[in-house]
Fold:
Amino acid sequence: MATPILQVENLSASYRKNTVLHDINFEVNGGSLTGIVGPNGAGKSTLLKTILNLHPSLTGSVKFFGLPFIKAKKRIGYVPQRGSVDWDFPTDALDVVTMGLYGQIGWLRRPSRLHKERAYEALDKMGMADYANRQISQLSGGQQQRVFLARALVQDADFYFMDEPLAGVDAATERAIMTILKELKAIGKTVMVVHHDLQTVEDYFDHVLLLNRTVIKHGKTEQIFTRENIANTYGGNMRWMGEEQRHAVHSIE
Amino acid sequence: MLSILLNSNTGWVLLSTMTLGIAAGTIGCMAYWKRQNLMSDALSHAALPGVVIAFLLIGEKNLLILIIGAAISALIGAFLIQWITTASRISEDSAMGMVLAIFYGFGIMLLTIANRSAGGNQSGLDGFIYGQAAAMVRTDVITMLVLALIVVFIVFIGFKEWKLYLFDGQFAKGIGLSLKGMNTLYTAVLVTTIVIGIQAVGVILMAAMLIIPAVSARYWTQSFKIMILLSAIFGGLAGAAGTLISALGSGLPTGPFIVVVGAGFFVVSLIFGKEKGILIHYLQFKLHQRNQQSNTQTLKQEG
Structure:
C-alpha cells in the first residue's frame, strides 16, 4: 500500500475552447476501490479518458505503476459507458467478451478455442452464460453492461477503470456488478468507478474522489464523504438528498 | 450471348467488375458500420478532377496514372471535409455536400476543357462519369484486379482488428490498437476501392457499389463475418451481371446497369430478408398473434 500505483500530476483537459479539467492532482494506492463522484459536466468521464490517453491532455503527467501509459497499458482494463458503442452491430455476447482477449491473442491472429472458453467463463461469472450466443442487440441494458464487464474481466488487468457501470441497470445487475468489484478488490486489483448515486457511495467504495472540474477532495470514504465536501462539490445550494429521504421514511412510519 | 463471353476482352472485363464488386461489397460493410456511406459518395465525386488533371498532364489515358490522380483528388476532398468539420462551425454533412458538389463541378469544368483540347474527344474520359467498362483494355483490367485483391486481402487478414475497430474504437485503442493507423488504413482502402471503380462504374454511381451490397446483406444475417461475405457476393454478382447486360448493347454505360442489378438484390433482401425483412417480419407477427389468440381461447374454454 505504500507506493501509489497511479500518480496524476497537474493534469488538465479541454473540449475545443472550454477547459473541462484543471489542476488535477491525486494518487491512488493499489488494492483500493474508488468512486469518482461529481455533478453532471464535472468531467468525470473526461478524467478517465484523459488518464487513459483516449482524450488529449493539455498539461500534466500520468504514471501507472511508475510508468507512462503506453508501457503499462497491458495491465489496465477500461469499461466504457454502455452508450458509447452501437449495440446493433451484428455479433453475439461471447464474441464481444472475446474482444477483451485480442491484446493477448496478438494482432492478425485468430482466437483459439481456449480463448473462447476463457471468454465463456467470464460471461458465466457475470451470470450471463445462457446468453453467450445471444445477439447483443437483443440484450437488455443490464445484460449489455454485464457483457462489458465480462470483457474487462478476461483482460485480467491489475487496474480497472469503469465509466458509470451502474447507470440504468436493475437491482440484480447492480448487485452482481458490485459483487465482482469487491471480489476484484479482494484479490488485490485496483478499481476506479465513475458513480453518480450518492446514496450508495458509502456502501460501495472505500475511497472517494469528489470531482467538479478539479479534485475537490480525495481520500478514504469515511473521512472525505461528508456533507460539507459534497455541498462544495455540487455547489452550495444543493440539498442533501440523503436527509430528505430519511425524513420521507420517518413520515411513513 | 455466348459470343460476348467468348470475346476475350469481355471475359476479362467481366472478371474485373466482379472483383471490383467483391472489394466494394467488403469495404461497403466497413463504411456502413463507420456510418460513412455519404462520405464514400463525396469521395467518389471528389475523384473526378484528379482524373482529368492527370490526363491533361500526361496527355494519354493510362489507367494507373489516372487512378493515382483520382486518389490524390479524393484524399484532398477527404482532408477538406475533415478540416472544415473541425476548424469551422459547419457540420460534417454540410461539409460533405459542399465538397461533393464543388469537386464534381470543377471536374466537369476541366472535362469540358480536356474534351476541347486535341485528342481529348477520343480520350473516353466521359466514361468516368457513368462508367464504361467495355472501354477497358487488358492492362486496365490487371491494374484493377490487383488493387481490388489487395483491398480484399487487407480486410481478410485483419478481420478481427477491423471488427474491434468498427464496434468499439475506444476499447481497441485501450488494448493497444492504433486508431490513427486504422483510420489511415480505412481511408486508404476506401479511396482505393473508389478510384479503381470509377472507370467501370463512374464517379456518380460508385457510392452505390459500396452502399447497396452492405445494406442488402444486413437483412440476412446477425454475424459480421457473414455480413461481409454476403455483401461481397452481392457486389460481385451485381458487378458481373450489370457488365454482362450492358455488353449486350453497344455503347451502353456499365454503372447504371450494375446499380440496377444491385438494387434488385436490395429489394429482394428488403422483402424476404431473414432478419427484419418486411415479409418475414409480417408473417412472424401474424403467427405470433394467432398463437396468442388461440392460447387465450383455450384458456377461456378450459376456464
User: Anything to note?
Assistant: DSSP finds eleven helices and nine strands in chain A. The beta strands of chain A are 4-15, 18-29, 33-37, 59-64, 76-79, 159-163, 190-194, 207-211, 215-220. Chain A touches chain B at residues 49, 52-54, 73-74, 76-78, 80, 84-86, 89-92, 96, 99-100, 102-103, 105, 107-111, 135, 137, 151, 155 (CB under 8 Å). The first helix of chain A runs from residue 44 to 51.
